[in-house]
Amino acid sequence: MIGILDCIGIMKICAYNNNYEYKKHLKCRKRSNNNKIINENEYKKQKENNIIYIVAKAFIPLENNEKQINEQKFEIIQTISEPIKCVHQLGNPDILKISFDSCTSNGGQELFIIGRNFDPKNTKVLFREYKNDGLLGWSAEAKIDKKYLHQCYIVCTIPPYKRLCQGGIVSLTIICGTKQSHPINFLYKP
Questions:
Q1: Helix, strand or coil for residue 16?
Q2: pTM of the model
Q3: Terminal CA-to-CA distance of the chain, rounded, Å?
Q4: How far from the centroid of its chain's Cα atoms is residue 150's Cα?
Q5: Which residue ranges make up each domain of the chain?
Q6: In principle, which of 63, 130, 140, 170 could form an S-S bond with 159, CB 3.0–4.6 Å?
Q7: DSSP state at residue 41
Q8: Beta strands 168-176 and 179-180: pairing type?
Protein backbone atom coordinates (compact mmCIF):
# COMPACT_ATOMS: atom_id res chain seq x y z
CA MET A 1 0.00 0.00 0.00
CA ILE A 2 1.19 3.51 -0.78
CA GLY A 3 0.15 6.48 1.34
CA ILE A 4 0.24 10.06 0.13
CA LEU A 5 1.25 12.79 2.53
CA ASP A 6 -0.48 15.66 0.83
CA CYS A 7 -0.62 18.44 3.34
CA ILE A 8 1.56 19.50 6.22
CA GLY A 9 1.42 22.97 7.62
CA ILE A 10 1.53 25.24 10.60
CA MET A 11 -1.69 26.63 11.97
CA LYS A 12 -1.41 29.80 14.04
CA ILE A 13 -4.20 31.40 15.95
CA CYS A 14 -4.36 34.64 14.05
CA ALA A 15 -3.87 37.86 16.01
CA TYR A 16 -6.11 39.65 13.50
CA ASN A 17 -9.04 37.38 14.37
CA ASN A 18 -8.44 37.86 18.08
CA ASN A 19 -8.34 41.65 17.69
CA TYR A 20 -11.53 41.54 15.62
CA GLU A 21 -13.31 39.46 18.28
CA TYR A 22 -12.10 41.80 21.02
CA LYS A 23 -13.39 44.90 19.19
CA LYS A 24 -16.69 43.15 18.45
CA HIS A 25 -16.95 42.27 22.13
CA LEU A 26 -16.41 45.90 23.16
CA LYS A 27 -19.12 47.13 20.75
CA CYS A 28 -21.61 44.58 22.07
CA ARG A 29 -20.76 45.53 25.61
CA LYS A 30 -21.44 49.22 24.92
CA ARG A 31 -24.80 48.41 23.35
CA SER A 32 -26.06 45.98 25.98
CA ASN A 33 -27.91 47.28 28.99
CA ASN A 34 -27.98 44.06 30.97
CA ASN A 35 -25.42 43.60 33.73
CA LYS A 36 -23.38 40.67 32.43
CA ILE A 37 -20.01 39.92 33.98
CA ILE A 38 -17.47 39.87 31.18
CA ASN A 39 -14.01 38.52 31.77
CA GLU A 40 -11.58 41.10 30.33
CA ASN A 41 -8.53 38.97 31.21
CA GLU A 42 -9.74 36.21 28.91
CA TYR A 43 -9.82 38.59 25.95
CA LYS A 44 -6.38 39.97 26.80
CA LYS A 45 -4.99 36.41 26.87
CA GLN A 46 -6.53 35.68 23.48
CA LYS A 47 -5.16 38.93 22.09
CA GLU A 48 -1.61 38.02 23.12
CA ASN A 49 -1.93 34.39 22.03
CA ASN A 50 1.30 33.04 20.56
CA ILE A 51 0.41 29.39 20.16
CA ILE A 52 0.87 27.36 16.98
CA TYR A 53 0.05 23.78 16.03
CA ILE A 54 1.70 21.56 13.45
CA VAL A 55 -0.97 19.90 11.31
CA ALA A 56 -0.38 16.86 9.09
CA LYS A 57 -2.97 15.33 6.76
CA ALA A 58 -2.48 12.04 4.91
CA PHE A 59 -4.62 10.47 2.17
CA ILE A 60 -4.48 6.66 2.34
CA PRO A 61 -5.92 4.90 -0.73
CA LEU A 62 -8.47 2.24 0.19
CA GLU A 63 -7.91 -1.23 -1.26
CA ASN A 64 -10.76 -2.01 -3.61
CA ASN A 65 -11.46 -5.42 -5.12
CA GLU A 66 -13.19 -3.89 -8.10
CA LYS A 67 -10.97 -1.47 -9.96
CA GLN A 68 -12.99 1.50 -10.98
CA ILE A 69 -11.54 3.88 -13.50
CA ASN A 70 -10.93 7.45 -12.27
CA GLU A 71 -12.66 6.74 -9.00
CA GLN A 72 -10.44 5.92 -6.08
CA LYS A 73 -11.50 6.28 -2.48
CA PHE A 74 -9.20 7.54 0.25
CA GLU A 75 -9.17 7.42 3.99
CA ILE A 76 -8.08 10.80 5.32
CA ILE A 77 -6.00 10.82 8.47
CA GLN A 78 -5.28 14.16 10.12
CA THR A 79 -3.31 14.85 13.25
CA ILE A 80 -2.56 18.02 15.16
CA SER A 81 0.42 18.44 17.45
CA GLU A 82 0.33 19.60 21.03
CA PRO A 83 0.25 23.41 21.33
CA ILE A 84 3.63 25.05 20.74
CA LYS A 85 4.15 28.38 22.48
CA CYS A 86 6.11 30.88 20.39
CA VAL A 87 8.24 33.13 22.54
CA HIS A 88 10.85 35.51 21.20
CA GLN A 89 14.16 34.70 22.82
CA LEU A 90 17.01 37.12 23.00
CA GLY A 91 20.02 36.27 20.91
CA ASN A 92 23.60 36.71 22.02
CA PRO A 93 24.49 40.24 23.08
CA ASP A 94 26.25 42.15 20.34
CA ILE A 95 28.43 45.26 20.68
CA LEU A 96 28.02 47.55 17.67
CA LYS A 97 29.78 50.73 18.86
CA ILE A 98 31.44 52.12 21.97
CA SER A 99 32.00 55.79 22.79
CA PHE A 100 35.78 55.33 23.01
CA ASP A 101 38.17 52.40 22.88
CA SER A 102 40.84 53.61 25.33
CA CYS A 103 41.21 55.49 28.60
CA THR A 104 43.76 56.05 31.37
CA SER A 105 44.58 53.25 33.80
CA ASN A 106 42.63 55.08 36.53
CA GLY A 107 39.33 54.34 34.76
CA GLY A 108 36.31 56.21 36.11
CA GLN A 109 35.05 57.49 32.75
CA GLU A 110 31.55 56.82 31.46
CA LEU A 111 31.46 54.39 28.55
CA PHE A 112 28.48 54.34 26.18
CA ILE A 113 27.88 50.98 24.51
CA ILE A 114 25.45 50.66 21.62
CA GLY A 115 24.39 47.20 20.56
CA ARG A 116 21.55 44.73 20.73
CA ASN A 117 20.14 41.88 22.79
CA PHE A 118 21.15 43.34 26.16
CA ASP A 119 19.03 41.96 28.99
CA PRO A 120 18.02 44.83 31.32
CA LYS A 121 17.54 42.38 34.21
CA ASN A 122 20.81 40.44 34.05
CA THR A 123 23.71 42.19 32.31
CA LYS A 124 27.39 42.53 33.22
CA VAL A 125 30.13 44.46 31.44
CA LEU A 126 33.48 42.77 32.02
CA PHE A 127 37.02 43.94 31.29
CA ARG A 128 39.39 40.95 31.13
CA GLU A 129 43.06 40.40 30.52
CA TYR A 130 44.37 37.00 29.52
CA LYS A 131 47.85 35.61 30.07
CA ASN A 132 50.00 34.27 27.23
CA ASP A 133 48.84 30.72 28.02
CA GLY A 134 45.19 31.74 27.53
CA LEU A 135 44.21 31.68 31.20
CA LEU A 136 42.42 34.60 32.78
CA GLY A 137 44.92 36.99 34.36
CA TRP A 138 42.69 39.86 35.48
CA SER A 139 39.01 40.69 35.41
CA ALA A 140 36.95 43.67 36.56
CA GLU A 141 33.27 44.45 36.26
CA ALA A 142 32.11 47.88 35.15
CA LYS A 143 29.48 49.63 37.23
CA ILE A 144 26.31 49.91 35.10
CA ASP A 145 24.06 52.94 35.43
CA LYS A 146 20.68 51.20 35.71
CA LYS A 147 18.84 54.28 34.41
CA TYR A 148 20.63 53.86 31.10
CA LEU A 149 20.46 50.10 30.70
CA HIS A 150 18.27 49.15 27.77
CA GLN A 151 18.04 46.34 25.25
CA CYS A 152 20.02 48.49 22.76
CA TYR A 153 22.41 50.52 24.91
CA ILE A 154 24.37 50.55 28.17
CA VAL A 155 26.08 53.36 30.06
CA CYS A 156 28.71 52.15 32.52
CA THR A 157 31.74 53.40 34.46
CA ILE A 158 35.09 51.95 33.39
CA PRO A 159 36.88 50.16 36.26
CA PRO A 160 40.54 50.99 37.06
CA TYR A 161 43.23 48.79 35.55
CA LYS A 162 45.17 46.46 37.88
CA ARG A 163 48.48 48.32 37.40
CA LEU A 164 47.96 52.08 37.39
CA CYS A 165 51.56 52.77 36.25
CA GLN A 166 51.26 50.53 33.23
CA GLY A 167 48.76 50.17 30.46
CA GLY A 168 47.53 47.15 28.62
CA ILE A 169 45.11 45.80 26.08
CA VAL A 170 42.13 44.02 27.61
CA SER A 171 38.98 42.52 26.18
CA LEU A 172 35.57 44.05 26.77
CA THR A 173 32.73 41.53 26.95
CA ILE A 174 29.04 41.85 27.77
CA ILE A 175 27.43 38.93 29.58
CA CYS A 176 23.65 38.52 29.73
CA GLY A 177 22.76 35.45 31.78
CA THR A 178 24.54 32.54 30.10
CA LYS A 179 25.13 34.37 26.80
CA GLN A 180 28.05 36.64 26.03
CA SER A 181 29.14 38.96 23.26
CA HIS A 182 32.25 38.59 21.16
CA PRO A 183 35.08 40.35 23.00
CA ILE A 184 36.41 43.62 21.62
CA ASN A 185 39.77 45.20 22.44
CA PHE A 186 40.00 48.05 24.92
CA LEU A 187 43.25 49.92 25.67
CA TYR A 188 44.27 51.15 29.12
CA LYS A 189 46.93 53.89 28.83
CA PRO A 190 49.50 54.50 31.60
A1: helix
A2: 0.55
A3: 80
A4: 15
A5: 4-85, 94-189
A6: 140
A7: H
A8: antiparallel
d(C-alpha 184, C-alpha 169), whole Å:
10
Give the list of residues 6+ apart from residue 95 with CB closer than 8 angstroms, or none.
Answer: 113, 114, 115, 172, 174, 181, 182, 184
Residue 171, pLDDT score: 95
- DSSP calls for 65-100: SS--TT---EEEEEEEPPPEE--------EEEEES-
| Band (103; pLDDT cuts 50, 70, 90) | very high
The alpha carbon of residue 23 and the mean position of all alpha carbons in its chain are separated, in whole angstroms, by: 29
Q: Which amino acid is at 172?
A: L
Judged against a pLDDT cut of 80, whether residue 94 lies above it is answered with yes
Cα separations in angstroms, 104 against 25, 79, 154, 158, 188: 63, 65, 20, 10, 5
Given the candidates 3.40.50.150, 2.60.40.10, 2.30.40.10, 1.10.10.10, the CATH classification of the domain at 94-189 is: 2.60.40.10
